[in-house]
Structure prediction request, 835 residues.
Amino acid sequence: MNAPVIIDDQQENASRHGRERLVVIGNGMAGCRAVEEILGRDADRYAITIFGAEPRVNYDRIMLSPVLAGDKSFEEIIINDQSWYDDNGIELVSGDAIIAIKREAKEVVSASGRVTPYDRLLIATGSDPFIIPVPGHKLPGVITFRDLDDVDKMLTAAEAGGNVVVIGGGLLGLEAAHGLSLRGMQVTVLHLMPTLMERQLDEAAGFLLRSELERRGQTIITQADTAEILGDSHVTGVKLKDGTEIDADLVVMAVGIKPSINLAKLAELEVERGIVVDDDMVTSDPAILAVGECVQHRGACYGLVAPLWEMCRALADFMTSNPSGYVGSVTATKLKVSGINLFSAGDFSGGDDTEDIVMRDASRGVYKRVVVKGNQLIGAVLYGDTADGSWYFDLLKRQEDISDIREALIFGQAFASGGATLDPDSAVAALSPDAEICGCNGVTKGQVVSCIDGGAGDLDSVRAGCKASASCGSCTGLVESLLSLSLGDDYGGARTVTPMCKCTSFTHEDVRRNILEKELKSIPQVMQELHWTTADGCASCRPALNYYLLCAWPTEHEEDPQSRFVNERMHANIQKDGTYSVVPRMWGGITTPNELRAIADAADKYEARLVKVTGGQRLDIFGIKKEDLPLIWADLNAAGMVSGHAYGKALRTVKTCVGSEWCRFGTQDSTGLGIKAEQMTWGSWMPHKFKIAVSGCPRNCAEASIKDLGIICVDSGYELSVGGNGGIHLRGTDFLCKVETEEQALEYIAAFIQLYREEARYLDRTAPWVERVGMDYIKGRIVEDEAGRKKLQKRFLFAQSVHQKDPWAERVAGAEGHLHKHIAEIRPFAVLEPA
Ligand SMILES: Cc1cc2nc3c(=O)[nH]c(=O)nc-3n(C[C@H](O)[C@H](O)[C@H](O)COP(=O)(O)OP(=O)(O)OC[C@H]3O[C@@H](n4cnc5c(N)ncnc54)[C@H](O)[C@@H]3O)c2cc1C
Ligand code: SF4
Prediction:
């Protein structure tokens, strides 16, 4: 403000010639478009001066990404060159930012000291990039992505090559990452949320995008929380809150924008998140209007150009005495990364009153999802094939009634307008005999039909006869359609296979087989590759998929906590009054005075309403409030106790009797074997809850004959039996085999559990599974096949090496660690101290 004061002559002259003086602050997309619109309506009405902080003419900011990527030059993205300003009598003052608005005097003051009077003032200052104020954020080498200067800085840095960390996996961050990657830099993208571009994309589309970017050589780290930018005189790296350090010669912060409102604030205009405007884009001062990203209209701020164009039209109408009023915008996004087609519009967050229609074409990498509410389209996400994006967007904006085309909506405009009916069988009927049905085995429609004509009456016979659908299974639906078409009523119209849930036509077994064969390692990947018909699955398939992936890839699958039932998420049992109960593990049913004291203290401290001995010989502490759960876990951990997983589809307890050490009838150390079995099996996730019991003699005080796996000790060894259930459908175990040593017993236990883990459907208890597959099968795999048994045991122990973690301790050590002073030192055996 110490700069010399220069009075603006042009605006003085304009005033004298009877034209209203319009001063525009901001030479960007919205400011210049507003002027274009005004000129188009009434070219002689205003004497216009535009101030721009940037030292250049008006250019297309959204094309900075192609400039960075080398697809365009700056000259090619200029919207209005100097001749446009000259031809329209506009004075451009570039490279001179306005620093004050004097509302009473109706003047603006620029950084160079120029004072310019106005009759009407238009603020179009856009947005400022948001900078995370972590240590190191001011280091040289940390830049944002907003204007041409930023692009120039990135290009200079890229000449030297090296590593760039882009913080922010939204539209801007990914475009920066793409450009810098094309310029030869090694790119790591850090994104705080689990899904890239989570505001525009759902999980499935985000997954496809991530896979494609990784395939192109970028490293994507999601759920990455930046703690610090490292370096002394220049940036050298980025440190995350989890301690990870990533080398960096350049850091691009692209974590969001905030409306540029400082000038307006200083001038005491009404501002909230943005400068508050009415439907004519007028601020709280009638002489001042605002447009573009700096405004807040009906509570909304926008960060894309389409709404700005609509605002500019309304503003020009008002400024030329023909007010039309802006009513707000629905926005659509496309990512400008070559080779990646991605479109998103409207609301796809879902809800009880919305319905998803999803189409996946794994082989073409296409994912489409439209969201319908009532009879209107309210959101669309397209990945891979975005040709119909504008059609969907149009339907959405016009709030068209889509009832008539609903069936065909997902197939796009051409199909929907053609009026074809969406009967999957009719589509299959229309295929030529040469059309390939089963890609894996190269089986044509003609071959499937002749197989059916030759006597195959169900899916299994077709699979056996011509191999169609015998591999990955993704053509099962097509084969079933052909069965239905060929056999009519004889096929009964009923599908022979029971799909896993309404989201897929695959059975549990098909899904498991595909997870292994296609090496699918995450839930979105399974859903995409296996053509899930819903965007995010349902309450049935998500927990099952989470389990199947965890079982198939113990070291690689990233646990998805949202795909667990509430008890597993909370690591406690929710009870009918909304409180929880907590069961610490007591190995083999043995405890110590110290453990009992810890339980008693915890029960007192957290005001437990009940302590109950469970049917599995453990103590259950009832009435714990949700907010106290982490605290009680920490206390019990500190006393050396780990979770009993009483809430989980997991190994619950190993119940024992006192056995030979105390009992007159005991033949073996049943308690000792029970402790060893529990020590080996605890923490293992299963298709359903799993209980073991060991009794010291056939009197069977531990009730081993109604457990998932029961062991009865006899004089000459151990009798193992499986598939028992003490629940609603009482079922005694089936005899499996007899072994001689404890070591053998443990080997068979591990092998049986692993077979169950690998082959049962999620939520199958052992009893129905054993009944379905038969004891002959189980004996064949466990008893008769020694090599196979040992392999099963090995896989079980391998899985245990990563899964045998106490969820309480993990939680206590994690994000809520600050709540706890101490973390458990797990003591696997409860040992009574000698007197
Ligand atoms: C790299 C990039 C890619 C993008 N891609 C897309 C896309 O694909 N699709 C899409 O819809 N949108 C995209 N956007 C967003 C789009 O560019 C903005 O929505 C649009 O530019 C906003 O227009 P605006 O006029 O409000 O702000 P801007 O275009 O930023 O213009 C504001 C101008 O005001 C100037 N200014 C600020 N303060 C002062 C002051 N005190 N005095 C004088 N001048 C001042 C600034 O220097 C700036 O030139 C992208 C943005 C970036 C940065
Ligand atoms: S099962 Fe046999 S050994 Fe065990 S307590 Fe009962 S009688 Fe004793």
